[in-house]
Amino acid sequence: MRKRPPSRFGAALVQECKRRNITQYRLAQLLGRSTRYLNNIEHDRSEPRFTTILLLAQAIGMEPGELVDAAAKLSWAALAEEKQDSGNEQLEMTVGKKKEKKNA
Predict the structure, then answer these.
(1) Which residue from 22, 62, 76, 102 could staple onto 17, CB 3.0 to 4.6 Å apart?
(2) Which one, of 104, 102, 86, 78, lies nearest residue 9 by Cα?
(3) First CA to last CA distance, the chain
(4) What average pLDDT score do residues 19-27 get?
(5) Which residues contact 31 (CB under 8 A, 6 or more apart)?
(6) Model's pTM, two decimal places?
(7) What local confidence, expressed as pLDDT, does residue 81 receive?
């Protein structure tokens, strides 16, 4: 089964807000939401609904597809990194077992 990529929507949102010099407080004002709500999205503790993504994109001056695309790129990169780390761990375990057998 294919592993679901980790969500990096929050990281993409933070990145795009920084590029546009929009603070979390300002974004919360523009959306009419709390900074706590945005903080949960930014730290990927909650995933925004589709309508919220539309509002977020509008508030920071992006097309929704651009924001989603930025998040998708970060998510797939994170998944690739996890796979690489997992492969390295398996390799280290295999090498460790071979050393144990050799020393036994």
Answers:
(1) 22
(2) 78
(3) 38
(4) 97
(5) 38, 52, 55, 56, 59
(6) 0.72
(7) 81
> DSSP secondary structure string, the chain?
-PPPPPP-HHHHHHHHHHHTT--HHHHHHHHT--HHHHHHHHTTSSPPPHHHHHHHHHHHT--HHHHHHHHHHHHHHHHHHHHHHHHHHHHHHHHHHHHHHHH-
Nearest residue to 25 (alpha-carbon basis) of 34, 16, 14: 34
Q: Give the tokens for residue 59.
A: 């508030």
Average pLDDT, the chain: 85
What average pLDDT does range 5-10 have in this prediction? Answer: 81
Distance (Å) of CA 63 to CA 28, 42, 52, 75? 18, 18, 13, 19
- Tell me the average pLDDT across 59-87: 87
- Give yes or no for a contact between 12 and 67, defined as CB atoms under 8 angstroms apart: yes
